[in-house]
Fold:
Amino acid sequence: MEFLRQLLTVAGKDLRLELRTRERMVTMFTFAILVAIVFGFALSPAVEVRLMAGAMIWVTILFAGMLGLGRSFGLEREQDALVGILLAPIDRGALYLGKFVANLALVLSTAFIIYLAYAFFFQLQLTGSGLGLILVTFLACVGFMALGTLFSAVAGGTRQGDMLIPIILLPLLTPVVIFGASATQRLLTNRPLAEVIGNIRVLAAFDLIFLLVCTMVFASVVEE
Structure:
């Protein structure tokens, strides 16, 4: 019970701070909409966007999410605030999971904006496969943020900082991107949910592995 309280305290602190400053939120939302506009101008009207929308959506989610991850531990690194947090009697796993929950909430809200933007610019129909898209997007974002939260802590302690995150994160996210984008593409073309059950199971398995491993190694990473 104490672990859960600490987790929610960390997540609540990050989300309240983000709602006050809107620093990451505005950047991610703006980037997502601009990418949709660029795709709209770049693609020929003869192109059947529906057949490639899954890949386009996940490219946008990935890079918008990485913009936010760059500042995930940024405030704690300033003026050595992270040292104060580490000296507090808080479980390192709760600190990691609290950060993870806050990052997940932010990337899910960005994904919602991305789906709306693509539906508006490319006339995609989302209602028929809405529940499937919600499930696939949630599971893929869990895996994305599980790794992303850990590596944002790693990058925060280096000189390269934000530039290091895509380099170390993208190769590890390959399974999540493949199964997430594939399932999203099938659902956007009105394929039945039964067709992507295998993708959903694989995404859930990766989520479990990523969360367990990252929670265990986070303490040694953040205390370096």
About this structure: Residues 2-222 form one domain.
